[in-house]
Amino acid sequence: MDGSSIRHSLQRATGHISFVTNQNRVERLYQSGSAKLLLPRTHTDITEAVILNTAGGLTGGDEFKHYLTTRESQLVVTTQAAERIYESSSGPVEIDIHLNASDGSILHWLPQETIFFNRSKLNRNIELHMSADSECLISESMVLGRLAMGETITDCSISDNWRIYRDDQLAHAESIRIKGDVNRILDSAPGVGGAKMMATILYLGPQAEDLSSIMLSTSRQCASNCAVSCWDKKLVVRLVADHVPTGRSDMIALLCRLRQQQMPRMWQI
Known about the structure:
- It is built from three helices and 17 strands.
- The chain is mainly beta.
- A hairpin with an 8-residue loop joins strand 3 and strand 4.
- It has one domain.
- It has helices at 182-187, 208-219, 244-259, and strands at residues 14-22, 25-33, 35-38, 47-53, 63-71, 74-79, 83-85, 93-102, 106-109, 114-116, 121-130, 135-144, 157-166, 169-178, 197-204, 225-231, 234-241.
């Protein structure tokens, strides 16, 4: 045998994080595979957790699952850098995020942007369970293509699902699907109107109505295309931008006004 008929399976990255804080103290920290969790010093009562992917990026067949729970605590979770979804010759990247906030907790999920390369594939699910006396902020942004290298997205498959439960009742649900004629979808008005970056900021808590006027005022100062909605103790901000650095700058301005504090230090590096 000359070995030509032997098929080799490609190595895949996997990662698992389980993290629990209770009364602003770490109760559990488990990490495995390419997923690591760092706890930098903040000198405040807010616990800051930083997720790191040591694989350096994700491609088809990679699987990551994160479980983050906070009770009677303030927790901010971010990432060390932007995540990159590379070209896939097989199935999609699978990412599952499970968040839980209870007993008057404040939870902010603030990862840096996800950058999609051409022919990338991603299935992501974000599920949050929160008590009615807690406050939660979720922010996610997508960058479509490596603009600095002149690359545009012509073929990709993106499935992004959010499910938010408040006291076990569904409070918010949304899904994004980008597949097929990608150029037509991205250039259409119902899509993102040709924008290269899109972001969603979701806040659930008792301050939603008060914060909506602040967000509306801030959005009018942004160069990006922004929209603000508020109902049922829920605030939603949408942003799309043709220029990624401008979109990122506007997103930071919105989040800083919403949080009434600076972004985690990893965003400033």
